[in-house]
Amino acid sequence: MLSRQFVRENPDTVRAAIENKGVDGVDLDAILDMDEEWRELKAKGDELRHERNEVSDRIGELKQEGKDEEAEEAIERSQELKDELQDVEDRADELKAELDAAMLEVPNVPDESVPLGEDESDNVEDHRWGFDDLRDLPDDVIPHYDLGEELDILDFERGAKVTGGGFQFVKGEGARLEHALIQFMLDVHREQDYVDVFPPIPVNSTSMEGTGQLPKFAEDAYRIGKDQDSDYEDDDLWLCPTAEVPVTNMYRDEILLDDDLPIKHQAYTPNFRREAGEHGTETRGYVRVHQFNKVELVNFVRPDESDDRLQELVREAEEVLERLGLPYRRLHMCTGDMGFAQAKKYDIEVWAPGDDMEDGPEVGGRWLEVSSASNFQDFQARRAGLRYRPERHESAEYIHTLNASGLAVPRVLVAIMEYYQNDDGTVTIPEPLQPYMNGQEHIEGHEPVGESAVGAGDRE
Question: 450 in a domain, yes or no?
């Protein structure tokens, strides 16, 4: 979150951030009024406390002087001050709770270098890779959702049966390819000096608040509910929407040392999120699903190093696509499309040639976001109490946090299925992944099982 002092001293900047990010429901004037009243109450409390101390000292002096009547009056005054102070402190505590809750709704202020814009149409493409030497593709590239069913490596119908819409089975060679992608990504990032962590998948509300998922995005997350007939208390847990949440909160309410920084962690997790999207191609298949695998990169750095680290973080994520030979582009996100908590953000989008979309590249196909690389500056650190001590004798300061997907696995799998598709309907496995699949070079699929696989004329 932003500091109250920053909001107090820069109301126009904060007001512009709220407007430019399109955040609704934030009453900045009410926040400023609450902050002013809270500070007045704190000052009033200090005055009452000082007067009460003076009266208490006076009571002892009056008793020593034998002035019992005046001492009784002073005792009555001390009690009045105590009661008045209690009322002031109670109101200050109540107001602080309201103020803290309101501050959680205030978005981060965009960095000065962020393009001003209203929506995704105002994002700025600043890099494109891989389009100068595209591989030969079939005349008609089969979309991954049709090809996945033909090869029997993706099963959306049975996933919906078992859980619901937006869930799926990845089977056979598809499952092996997904495992290969995860291990390949982890190995690439180990070369980049990332330290692996395997975090818990359920996370509590405090952790969700720390990274900014709560309260803003509660409707997008999956809450672990309590059975009404159960004797167990509510665990206050959410299914992990991204490894950013548990990994960032690893050091919550701790003070790190300067020698500890920078910290670079990577984590593979399954993630659970209610993905929104328009009906049709956008939500069809393995692109917008509610459970997906991802390798997440999380960085903790000194404040003066975070902008440079963001550029390096982007390159670390892009390296995965370049090693796989998958064409992609990079977008500098504008204010209206960058997110609630970010100060600066880049999106990396891989090219999938199976569907022609309105916002696709000139050569057809569509863009699939596989990574968002973000610098939160000290926004998350303030929410989660993440600090470091520059020198052992100096006061602790808030660190800067960054993260990026390295990468989102399903969409990379989709891009491979479509970009490495062959005329005969097989899929060439990118060379860097072949060692993870025992040297296998192609996905040829296998025969489906069950009555649904039998031709209509052959069924009894």
Answer: no
Q: Which of 4, 52, 176, 273 is catalytic?
A: 273
Least-confidence region, from 67-76, 169-178, 196-205, 424-433: 67-76
Spatial CB neighbours of 296, under 8 Å, sequence gap ≥ 6? 242, 243, 244, 247, 266, 267, 268, 269, 403, 404, 405, 406
| Residue 39 designated active-site | no
The answer to whether residue 110 sits within a structural domain is: no
Which pTM does this prediction carry? 0.91
The verdict on whether 431 is a catalytic residue reads no
309 counts as catalytic:
no
- Which candidate in 372, 374, 405, 418 is catalytic? 372
Residue tagged active-site, from 4, 52, 176, 288: 288
Residue 387 confidence (pLDDT): 98
**Candidates 98, 312, 369, 397; catalytic one:** 369
- Average pLDDT of the chain is 93
The CATH number linked to 71 is: 1.10.287.40
Number of H helices, E strands in the chain: 12, 18
Nearby residues of 313 by Cβ (< 8 Å), 6 or more positions away: 297, 299, 373, 402, 403, 404
Domain count, the chain: 2
Range of the domain at 361: 120-443
Q: Is 288 part of the annotated catalytic residue set? A: yes
Residues 199 and 97 in one domain: no
pLDDT digits (tens, 9 = 90+) for 37-46: 999 999 999 9
372 tagged catalytic? yes
Helix (H) or strand (E) holding 94: helix 68-103
The model's pLDDT over 258-316, given as tens digits with 9 standing for 90+, comes to: 999 999 999 999 999 997 654 444 668 999 999 999 999 999 999 999 999 999 999 99
Catalytic position from the list 176, 366, 383, 411: 411
Residue 292 within a domain: yes
